[in-house]
Design goal:
- The chain is mostly beta strands.
- It contains no helices and eleven strands.
- Strands 2, 4, 5, 6, 9, 10 and 11 form a seven-stranded mixed β-sheet that branches.
């Protein structure tokens, strides 16, 4: 049973940056992928970004493309979400998710991820 532990959320002003971390237990191989999703009250869980662990291939939602960068440190089994130029609409609870066997067409679908972190709050407000 993999475990994911997120950190790095906080309260920042518009235009600021934050980096979220997601430390995973176990191992990552094959079709392992790690993704970030966010939730705000009254809205469904929204895809933010995801990364194929072995190849490093990355995918982003249109709303964060060019501002957010997902990456991973294979040796530390830790994923990161660097968030720049934050906007009030980026406010939400950010969740790290992982799955050991997820196909490309499913990587943006939160229902396809087996393991989830506890979430970390990001608030962007002046």
């Amino acid at each position: 049973q993999a475990q994911l532990l997120e950190s790095g959320g906080g309260l920042v002003q518009p235009g600021a940056s934050l980096r979220l971390s997601c430390a995973a237990s176990g191992s990552a191989s094959g079709q392992y992928a790690m993704g970030w999703f966010r939730m705000t009250p009254g809205k469904e869980r929204e895809f933010v970004a995801t990364i194929r662990w072995n190849s490093g291939a990355t995918y982003y939602s249109d709303s964060v493309k060019g501002r957010f960068t997902i990456s991973r440190d294979k040796a530390k089994l830790t994923g990161y979400l660097q968030m720049n130029d934050l906007r009030p609409e980026d406010t939400g609870t950010y969740y790290c998710a992982a799955d050991p066997a997820i196909i490309l067409s499913s990587m943006r679908d939160s229902r396809r991820y087996r393991y989830w972190g506890q979430g970390t709050q990001v608030t962007v407000s002046s």
